[in-house]
Amino acid sequence: MMRRRTTLLTSCTALALALGATACGGGPVTAGGGDKALSGQTVTVAGVWSGSEQKNFQKVLDAFTAKTGAKTQFVSTGDNVSTVVGSKIEGGNAPDVVMVPQVGVLQQFAKKGWLKPLSPTAEQTVDADFAPVWKKYGSVGGTLYGLYFKAAHKSTVWYSPGALAQAGVKPPKTYDEMLKAGHTVSDSGLAAFAVAGQDGWTLTDWFENIYLSQAGPEKYDALAAHKLKWTDASVVRALTTLGKLFKDKQLIAGGQKEALNTDFPSSVEKVFGPKPEAGMVYEGDFVAGVAHDQFQKTIGKDANFFPFPAVGGGTAPVVSGGDAAVVLKDGKNAKAGMKLLEYLTTPEAAAVWAKAGGFLSPNKKLDLAAYGDDVTRATAKSLVGAGDSVRFDMSDQAPAAFGGTKGAGEWKLLQDFLRDPSDPKGTAAELEAAAAKAYQD
């Protein structure tokens, strides 16, 4: 269930850029050869992607084939990667490579002994070309198992330039300025924000950005690992900050009740659809895909973003998500699978999907010119430029029972808080009770 949100959303993000699938640079890729050394071999890759995401990833796989001669076969797992992959391993039909959507699932696979450590070649490239934080999230017990090939930037606030211009406000630099600008937008005739409260995961993203900026990365890491209790004063403070937005009827389109009946695509429609109700919507870079594909908005002109602003004197947050490539020990062609991972570490591989759209790479060596539009370039620059201050989506690090289940855990409790934000301390206590149970199980 947790993964479904990313699958459905990021599959919306391929901005129809109809560009070719050839890798930039033109030179031979050392990872995986370039001399057709893998001719006659087939690499099986499993992942959650479908639709445009699967088509664009296939372009990357085709580029690998052109370099190495190896054929590839992509198997879509649907939402529950761990269950599907586990059953394939038990049935003696393990894929060679899996694109893993959550840190928690990667850790689960490693602890079950399913994964091969990345080759020295791949690890050297990760050390040289990726911020250390990506190696940290791909490692378990000090061993690197996962390569983060595709990332999401979840600290972007999307807005209608026309709505902000009509209100006479500019993109804010702080959270307080954002709420003040929201009131000005509201005074001009539109609500400030469309909030997708029907999808509990969007509320976790609101909380995570506020918490990371306000409490700082050390406490964020501790809370993500449940080494810090949710009853901590820093959590109550972040909930109080979030509650100021939730209870302000001027700021939320339709108020709390309507927000609880608004899913993510509908929240984007309230800003960029034919009958706008709000000037801004907070969510990740994938908002651009929905605005472009469903409402024919030109990104950069009709839809733009500003970074999620700094909260309470803290640093502006950069929260991310992503998909990590891992190699299974039981795959029939794990050796060729590792060659695919070595290829995926290269900027050439990332450039293939970057040109197609709907993609961000954490690879510092990828030329920003590979992206098809200025807004995506700006988003990618922000993600890569954040370096080691990037933090992975907290709910994706948690057990699914707490951080990724509809109608339960953090999703439900933050929906209850949106409905009635009057008791941040009580909500923190409920979050701690749910977290304690989930991390024990």
TrEMBL record:
- PROSITE patterns with a match to the protein in the record: PROKAR_LIPOPROTEIN
Q: What are the protein's UniProt keywords?
A: Signal, Transport
Q: Which Pfam families match?
A: SBP_bac_1 (PF01547)
Which region is the signal sequence? 1-23
Member of which family? Belongs to the bacterial solute-binding protein 1 family.
Protein name (record)? Sugar ABC transporter substrate-binding protein
Give the originating organism. Streptomyces cellostaticus
